């Protein structure tokens, strides 16, 4: 058993792992972040409408919902590195493959099907599992830095894709993004995406045997109250904040904000999201993560309340967008951190794969609920009220989590019966 490391020691040994994980996670996000730039050229060349162009993203979402738990089990068996390297190659080919579109809607959806399956091999669980296994004292900030990769893609891709399309055409733009961005991520992962705590070949091989790690079994996880609280809270906050994010410009314009001003406010929320990942990660390492996570998610209720007709004002609108943006940068981070804390690492991939499915369902259903509320009532007030209540409940669920993860006792019981259980530092 190794002596526990300080956060500084963990970062000295593992910062390259975080860099590689952030690069890999960013590549997973490039197409969804930049596809809007391709809609115009594709519609112009093939005469497709926006429904046809958007259908592929729905295919990817369905694949994530159905197969994430299964892929999580594969991650547990093979280990993150064995998944990430071939997965990145597949995703590079899938991204470049969009440049082969020939006008057939069936072929276009087939390309999205291949992309969705390739993306599943490098889903968020791959990157967070590796980081969770390498960091304990500094896990919160390490998770935040890893997930910032998606924010980088969301910031850069619209401009990058537009520039590449203008200079080289949309077909070559897909190729440049796939082999360029993907190639950088692949090189970084080849060099650095490995657990820095194991150095010998035997130790590296043992690291893939997750049955030797601390954590709950799958059957124990299904019965664990803390994990269900995390799942329900994540679903509630993800669904409600996703609905607010997608509909925030219509909500703001209904409040009398110009479309140009609304777009700038949305961009300001994106900056707040990056700050949210970093600040929340640092605070979860320093303070009680249940309270940090619960307050961060619960305070999102303020964003909904400040946008309700009769309450909102210019200062309240700015505060609402900043609060929602900040929280939007933390939802996945809080979920992944607390899942590792309460499930342990033994079956982290499988358990977090279920969380990913909940995230996908929430992200898909929230905008529909917001739109339906508007269609039925002619305004967003019912949805905003629901959002204020739901986010408050989500925060309370996280604050109420038990102080001691169940797997600590489970690990002690296994060790007492002769099972091989290692601490997170081994």
Brief account:
This protein is mainly alpha-helical. The protein has helices at residues 7-28, 30-34, 36-46, 50-78, 80-97, 105-120, 124-134, 139-168, 170-192, 201-206, 218-222, 225-254, 259-286, 289-298, 300-306, 314-328, 331-343, 348-377, 381-399, 406-416.
Task: Describe it.
With 426 residues, the protein is mainly α. It is globular. The termini are close together. The C terminus is likely disordered.
Summarize the SSE layout with pairings.
Elements: H1 7-28, H2 30-34, H3 36-46, H4 50-78, H5 80-97, H6 105-120, H7 124-134, H8 139-168, H9 170-192, H10 201-206, H11 218-222, H12 225-254, H13 259-286, H14 289-298, H15 300-306, H16 314-328, H17 331-343, H18 348-377, H19 381-399, H20 406-416
Helix pairs in contact: 1-7, 1-8, 1-9, 3-8, 4-5, 4-6, 4-18, 5-6, 5-7, 5-9, 7-8, 7-18, 8-9, 8-13, 8-17, 12-13, 12-16, 12-17, 12-18, 12-19, 13-14, 13-16, 14-19, 15-16, 15-19, 17-18
């Amino acid at each position: 058993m190794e002596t526990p490391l300080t956060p500084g020691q963990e970062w000295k040994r593992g910062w390259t792992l975080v860099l590689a994980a952030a690069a890999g996670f960013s590549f997973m996000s490039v197409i969804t972040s930049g596809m809007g730039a391709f809609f115009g050229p594709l519609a112009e060349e093939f005469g497709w409408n926006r429904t046809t162009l958007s259908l592929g993203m729905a295919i990817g979402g369905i694949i994530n919902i159905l197969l994430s738990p299964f892929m999580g089990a594969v991650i547990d068996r093979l280990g993150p590195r064995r998944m990430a390297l071939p997965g990145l190659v597949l995703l590079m080919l899938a991204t470049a493959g969009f440049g082969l579109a020939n006008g057939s809607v069936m072929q276009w959806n087939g390309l999205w099907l291949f992309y969705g399956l390739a993306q599943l091999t490098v889903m968020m669980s791959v990157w967070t599992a590796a980081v969770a296994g390498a960091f304990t004292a500094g896990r919160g900030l390490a998770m935040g830095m890893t997930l910032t990769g998606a924010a980088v893609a969301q910031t850069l891709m619209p401009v990058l894709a537009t520039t590449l399309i203008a200079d080289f055409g949309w077909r070559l733009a897909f190729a440049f993004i796939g082999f360029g961005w993907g190639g950088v991520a692949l090189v970084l992962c080849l060099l650095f995406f490995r657990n820095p705590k194991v150095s010998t070949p035997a130790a590296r091989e043992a690291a893939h045997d997750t049955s030797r790690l601390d954590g709950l079994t799958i059957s124990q996880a299904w019965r664990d109250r803390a994990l269900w609280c995390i799942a329900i809270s994540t679903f509630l906050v993800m669904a409600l904040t996703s609905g607010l994010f997608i509909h925030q410009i219509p909500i703001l314009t209904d409040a009398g904000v110009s479309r140009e001003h609304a777009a700038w406010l949305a961009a300001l929320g994106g900056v707040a999201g990056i700050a949210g990942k970093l600040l929340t990660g640092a605070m979860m390492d320093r303070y009680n993560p249940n309270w940090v996570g619960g307050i961060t998610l619960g305070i999102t209720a303020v964003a909904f309340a400040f946008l309700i007709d009769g309450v909102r004002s210019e200062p309240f609108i700015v505060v609402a967008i900043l609060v929602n943006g900040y929280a939007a940068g933390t939802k996945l981070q809080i979920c992944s951190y607390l899942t590792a804390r309460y499930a342990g690492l033994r079956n982290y991939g499988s358990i977090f794969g279920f969380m990913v499915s909940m995230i996908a369902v929430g992200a898909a259903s929230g905008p529909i609920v917001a739109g339906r509320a508007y269609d039925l009532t002619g305004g967003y007030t019912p949805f905003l009220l629901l959002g204020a209540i739901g986010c408050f409940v989500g925060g309370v669920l996280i604050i109420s989590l038990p102080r001691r993860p169940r797997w600590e006792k489970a690990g002690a019981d296994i060790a007492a019966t002769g099972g091989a259980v290692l601490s997170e530092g081994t």
